[in-house]
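In practice, a research group might receive sequence data for several interacting partners and want a quick structural hypothesis before committing to experiments. The following worked case mirrors that situation: the sequences arrive first, and a predicted assembly follows.
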Amino acid sequence: MQPETKEILSAERFINLYEKHREFLSAQDTSHIAALRDQAMKSFTGLGFPDTSLESWRLTDLDESFNRGYDYHLKPTTGVDFHKVFRCNIPHLDTAIIGQLNGWYVSKDVPLMELGNGIIMGSLAEARKKYPHLVERYYGTMANDSADGFTALNTAFAQDGVFIYVPDNVKSPRPVQLINVIHFEENLFLQSRNLIVVGANAGLSLVHCDDSYNHQASFSNIVTEIHIGEHGVMDHYKLQNINNNSTLVSSVFFRMDASAQLASHYISLNGGLLRNNIRVHFNGPHGHAAIYGIYLMDKRQHVDNQVYVDHAFPDCSSSETFKGILDEHAHAIFNGHVLVRRDATKTDARQSNKNILMTDTARVNSKPFLEIYNDDVKCSHGSTTGQLDQESMFYLRQRGIGEETARMLLMFAFADEVVSKIAIPELRQRIEDMVKKRLQGELQICEQCVLHCNTPEHPVEFQIDLSKI
Amino acid sequence: MESEATKILDEVTQGDYKYGFVTEIETEFAPTGLSEDTVRYISAKKNEPEFLLQFRLKAYRHWLTMSQPEWAHLKIDPINFQDIIFYAAPKKKKELSSLDEVDPELLATFNKLGISLDEQKKLTGVASVAVDAVIDSVSVKTTFSETLSKHGIIFCSFSEAVQNHPDLVKQYMGSVVPYTDNYFAALNSAVFSDGSFCYIPKGVRCPMELSTYFRINAANTGQFERTLIVAEEGAYVSYMEGCTAPQRDENQLHAAIVEIVAMKDAEVKYSTVQNWYPGDKNGIGGIYNFVTKRGICKGSHSKISWTQVETGSAITWKYPSCILLGDNSVGEFYSVAVTNNHQQADTGTKMMHLGKNTRSTIISKGISAGKSNNSYRGLVRISKNAANSRNYSQCDSLLLGAKCGAHTYPYIQVDNRSSIVEHEATTSKISEDQLFYCQQRGISAESAIGLIVNGYAKEVLKQLPMEFAVEAQKLLSISLEGSVG
Amino acid sequence: MLLQIKNLHASINGKEILKGVDLDVREGEVHAIMGPNGTGKSTLASVIAGREVFEVTAGEILYKGKDLHKLSIEDRAREGIFLGFQYPVEIPGVSITNFMRTAVNEIRKFKGLDPLPGGDFLRLMEEKKRLVEITSNLTNRSVNEGFSGGEKKKNEIFQMAMLEPVLAILDETDSGLDIDALRIVANGVNKLRRPDNAFVVITHYQRLLDYIIPDFVHVLFEGRIVKSGGKELALELEEKGYDWIKKEQE
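A structural hypothesis for the assembly, expressed as tokens:
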């Protein structure tokens, strides 16, 4: 089977492709998953790719991305050794690493690791073969194929990705680091599908990175389903640092059982076009979800965060804190939507979106929506966009701090509200450094690295020490 | 378990509509339905100049190409435009020359609504208000026109303006809300019947409040009025608008347009107390209130301020907006929207900052009761050239009872770094603690709710002209309090 | 002469606030500026510090004989001008330690000195904290965030102690302080008095001047200094209020 090359992305292309390769795609499927696939393809045929006529895509125009033309492979790409290109250099960060190259699970030893404590992690394709019932219980139950063309397409074509299973009452002893590396000599369209299950009373800390290692254009359509069982605790990090020719549509669906706790951190440092669909569904009472986002964009970069929180049960709380600094021609979109259903009494939902514009060509669109059907709730939202606070600037400068330094300090402080919530100290330290570099415009020197890189890091001179003593 | 507070809320949120009576007057109708002939009929009835007929026809043809907007958080039963009578006018026996010649039935109707069309009859302690009274499709009387004309102010029905000041109408009509603007604006532009016209010349401060009172009386009719206010350089006017309709089982359509033009240093204050028939407790009947209101601050340092108290209508779809084109111009939007029973409201504003140093303030208070849905929808847009502009928005929702909905849909777009946009919103309810506290001080629960709601809406109510504020406060209480009054 | 203000006029958004202020301050002196609300006291302080929202429309400010007009806010600060704010702004996310270290080192750099080594800096912090009786955790918090009124003012004096200015302007540092905090603030100022520096204390009440004894007292009224005298003028104002000044002006 030859990979399709250099074709633009269009619904017809995938409808035809599916027809042609349906049997190949579902060769390993259980009947349930094969049915899901067909159903999703039906949805996709109806929906197509979203365009700007849809309210949720009104401000994110994908035409340019679609028209670049991409190869699409139904088999793993070959040629690059993941373990040669990848080297994590966060000092002292002890994580279990799972690698994905161009959307395919990369196995060093075995495709599926089964740890002594019952934790399973590795290739989703392998997990579907080995634990069909376990996978089936969760797979496709969170992602909604009927509402979004990208999700439907992903379900229709899903082959590989990562599967993590933390059984009830088990706490993962160290963070799991999931690295998506894009590295190919041609423009590449890729889709991967991840399924993560955190059992009741279980705990998982997941660092999920999207990286590109060269400047080749790519378009990723990644769907991740995350189930957190009763009293389960999840700490989730999404780090995005891909090249300026990359388009990333990431859809993460969280389902939270009673008393589950989630802290999710979206850290967008670089990328041509980043679209994050974040959906949180409370599946029982007393859940708590805190979603943080920081985006630092420049050039013609575009970031679009869509956060949907469905308060379907009483006594849950959620917070959204998204902050961005936009330079040059960057464009940021925040669309928060909190739905409080009729029976969701004692809901506590907060939304906050704050932006700083550095130039008159940078743009921000903010839509913090509240949709409330219950009177016994505490809901609030706030959105501010503007420049750095002039009062604070005056105060800092009156103490003898130069204008540029004062600006840096305030920008770093602005980002700190989100960065300081990172619970893994080594990671926080690293991200603080990244943010500093980004703010000083020095991230380009190794923009292909978030947590690792091939080239030795350039020493970065700070005029001031921004770290806390 | 139903709490005491819930029970009280249920009782007090079921007030009756006081303006639901019908007046028996001889009325002349256009044939039911809508076609190019209807448009020509209306234009001919009004003896309009050719340019206006052409404007209507262009609007009608454009409307045919459009479809009803669906983005609002509203459930709207399909409207059959062929079932609506687009023109209904009380029959005149002859041209009127004085108040004595106004149909006594009409006078009685307006008296019953508390609107005086008698210039001599002033209430003690209340400043005079010039009134343009519009019933169904036509204006029946404009008071104080002569007094105002001494100041060079033109205040008359839109039809009169078309006859007497066609150049002004031609210059400004459609300049703020073009007929292509939206579905209902296109419809209005095709079939509008009457409305008010107001022109304040350069440097004139209008000596009294101007007001238009809209009344739908006839059955199966739609009301499509059009208001145009032009304030020349340095002029000031405060304008108020009120409306009611009889109680009927079918939905009636009201699709109006208001356009305001404010030149350099001019200020226009536009206040609305909207009390169209909201339908009954089960959601039967009521007015569809689909209105396009927009003002343009054309000159520097001009100001347009919208204040609205929305208590009526089965469905409200309305976004009084400001285009801040002049440097240093100011736009304001103060709104209280109350929905009860099965009412639906999707209302808010648009603030378009185009000029430098422009300022806008949005204060919106939504109050939902019964099974109603109340949405704030507002756009704040700071364009690239609107340096140093500011917006502050505060959108609060109060929910009374567990079956209603309160929604907030702010749209914020900032393309300029030196500008600051702030939006805040909270959602709350009347707590049992507040009720208990009031009751412990000897205040009945019904009064307490009235007090709390009025306190909650105070920031907006205080923006209303005095003549309206009292009325609005009462209306708020009536909309929610029922028996207490 | 340390500070010489000549016929200073300043306005904000086209509105004139200062209408011809004259003031001379020598090294070693303490000046008190009093006057009713809204007469331009805080404006005068902000203009000396170089706040950009105010426009100097006439007159000049000479500091160590140099015209301040062209100096940026931070360069004025680095030359030794310190403004103790009436309402210190809260800056979330910036710790006081980091903030002070940045300020101290930038000022040192301006003077051609090397940055203060971390250890020395921390020792300096400890020493100055004791001076204004600040309990230890204050410095780990963000600048002014969540501070009480008294804590904010103490923090201003602490920063003054850290930066050792030549000319310190304290804008209503006494407002909102209870008697203990007032004593601590005044003590701090008194310990920092030296023959080669000067203080301009803006206050509403005579109370602070019981603790910080001024050499001169000036009354600012409607944008001008209308009366100057010794410390006894403050007592007279306390006794008679400002009405007699107003009457004198009419």
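Before designing any experiment, note the following. The radius of gyration of chain C is 18 Å. Chains C and B do not touch (no CB pair under 8 Å).
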